[in-house]
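**User:** Here is a favour to ask of a fellow structure person. Please take any protein you like and set down a full record of it. No explanation is needed for now; the record alone will do.

**Assistant:**
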Amino acid sequence: MLMYNKFFCYILITEMTTVRPQKIHSIHLLRGVAIIMIVFSHCLGVFKNSHLIANSYLFSFLNLFAFNFTTFFVLIAGFLFQHLTYKYDVKGYYLSKFKTVVCPYISVSIFCFLYFHYQYLSRLPVFSLTEPSSSMSIVKMMLTGTQLLPLWFMPMIIIIFAISPLLYKWSKKSLIVIGLVSMFWVVMFTKPDYKQPLLNLLHYGPVYLTGMMIKQNYEKIMKLVKENLALVIFFFGLCLFIPFAYRYVDYLGVERLYYDTLQKIILFILALYFLDGLNHRNNEGGIYKFFSYLANVSFPIYFIHQIIVLFLEQRLINSSFGYIIKTDNGQLASVGAISFLICTLTISIFIANTIKFVFKDKAKYLIGGNR
């Protein structure tokens, strides 16, 4: 009987240590929200009149709110890394990221070199030690992600994936202090120029750690938010209002601080709180399915949407409605950006599904895999 009890306990402990964590539906949904806002920010960038922000509070607010939703992607990546540490294996992890991140980065970059940069590159020598060459220009663009606007993110996140063994060790320790310091750090160390991946790492690396910390202390944080909801919402509103206000006020005394990333971190925590109920029931609603679908194709959309934006922008410029791009009417520009968003998402999804239909499982090497 004693041996039977010991055996039963052993089986129970083994099952407890190997059980998979519950899927967090709120995180999945937020991936869909993040890709919409990232695409929207680039659609807003189509309207280039320098007076738009000064002339229109609406356009200015949309521009500010949609900006830097890349923070959501980094937080989600850190959150899921912490969530899935039970199955972390360095070789398997590296292989997975090479297939689903590095390979599509290379394939989309090749398209960009041929479609956007061919004329420039073709005028350069293939290799030279004394002058700019096509080979060195390609290497530089690959290392900085400057061949296409959204690709600045790739060198930085690849570095984060590369240091995953260190992050895995940290995941076993308490991350509360690191997370709090990180949230302070992103205010002091402003988001650098997108052409500088190492400096971007110094800004977004702490954001990744914050995502890990949020997952590690999820229940505590949700309880804290519940008990101080009004204060958290006020803090988010403050981080949104201050950068909005100093677009129109000469001096507030806080211009040197950077609130955009902290604002998105607080918004992320609030979103997790309000969506927490999704984690405890089956989700069959149409809204959930819509955002869930976008979350599933978010990575392909991320890789190809800017190509679509540039294509649509050029078509608009060459049409009789080309004047809209230079409008100083904020409402018109806002409606135009929303129209661009709908068209870009629709075409991106169509292209992603077409590539998946043609290349089947190999599509993930070209444009990233579905989630």
About this structure: Residues 64 and 242 are 11 Å apart (CA to CA).
